[in-house]
Specification:
By secondary structure, the protein is mainly α. It has helices at residues 3-12, 15-37, 40-60, 78-83, 87-118, 125-133, 140-150, 158-167, 178-205, 210-218, 223-234, 236-251, 255-260, 272-282, 286-318. Helix 3 crosses helix 15, helix 5 (87-118) runs antiparallel to helix 12 and helix 14 (272-282) packs antiparallel against helix 15 (286-318).
């Protein structure tokens, strides 16, 4: 190559551009590190509040630790075997699953139509919205005590007294019969949360442009067709949030059955959370309670992941 050709090539090279290209990977790396640095506090909180306790629970689940004896003996998978063979533990697991599924389905089925009604213009709509939201304000434990008085199986119970005075009905064992007690806990759970989730759906409904409904009305669509083809598809993000919250809350339920029935009659309304507390604190079986907690946490994680996949698939089909 001649010296003239080399000079021409050097003159055509944009040296500042090459220098910027050489610095670009380093700049991007710094930006990435800077953005990831903001996640460090969140990761630390997660590790301290969730990761470390879960790791300790996994460790204790393979032991017979009572919480008092400093000597810890490893028992292998004995605690996990007991979790799946103990009738009381299985009873708590079954009712927890039934409660979570039933309340999620019933609240969703009631909250969406209620939100549609509350979204209409009528006299006193703000007062009506507040009344439906009111059950979400007091503590669930307080509401459980109130409903315990209402559903008292004796004749002195508020509901039994009303039924007896109006229709001459004998006292109904609302909380003394296993099946009725389970149904009562589920219905009270639905009553306490339906209004809150209706307000959640109402917030999403108010973000839907009214032009969609006007165009549908011009095209001859009736109310049911507008609901199925406009309202319901656009509510899928709210349905995802609501059902995930309901499932997590239902699987972790404790205060309502505890104050309403005390877990009875027998162990009909025992929940996983109550069983963990009873085994760990009441019976000083921390190893068994830890094993149950580990199984429960894994089960909740699986349920949430499956639910998110199903709801996201529903969102894609309706979008």
């Amino acid at each position: 190559m001649t010296s003239g050709t080399a000079t021409n090539l050097e003159s055509t090279i944009d040296r500042p551009r090459l220098l910027r290209m050489g610095r670009r990977p380093t700049g991007r790396l710094r930006e990435a590190l800077a953005s990831q640095a903001f996640l460090i506090p969140i990761v630390l909180v997660f590790v301290i509040l969730i990761g470390v306790p879960f790791a300790r629970s996994v460790y204790y689940s393979f032991t017979d630790w009572s919480g008092l004896n400093p000597i810890i003996k490893f028992v292998g998978f004995d605690n996990y075997v007991r979790v799946f063979t103990d009738p009381s533990l299985l009873s708590g697991l079954s009712f927890t699953i039934v409660f979570a599924l039933a309340t999620t389905i019933l609240i969703t089925a009631l909250a969406i139509p209620l939100a549609v009604v509350l979204n209409q213009s009528f006299f006193g709509k703000r007062f009506v919205r507040a009344m439906y939201f009111f059950p979400a304000i007091p503590s669930v434990a307080i509401l459980g005590l109130v409903w315990n008085f209402i559903l008292n199986p004796l004749g002195s119970g508020a509901l039994n007294a009303v039924l007896n005075s109006l229709f001459g009905v004998a006292p109904i064992p609302w909380l003394a019969n296993a099946t009725l007690a389970q149904i009562s806990v589920i219905l009270v759970g639905v009553w306490t949360s339906t209004g809150w989730h209706a307000i959640l759906y109402l917030a999403y409904l108010q973000s839907i442009p009214t032009d969609y409904y006007e165009v549908a009305r011009i095209d001859g669509a009736n109310a049911r067709q507008s609901f199925m083809n406009i309202t319901l598809p656009l509510l899928t993000p709210a349905i995802t949030i609501s059902t995930v919250l309901l499932m997590i809350g239902g699987l972790n339920v404790y205060a309502l059955p505890e104050t309403l029935t005390g877990g009875g009659p027998g162990d009909a309304t025992y929940t996983i959370t109550k069983t963990i507390i009873t085994s760990g604190i009441g019976q000083a079986k921390y190893g068994q309670a830890s094993a149950l907690g580990v199984v429960f946490m894994i089960a909740v994680g699986i349920v949430v992941i499956v639910q998110l996949r199903l709801t996201r698939g529903f969102e894609k089909r309706t979008s």
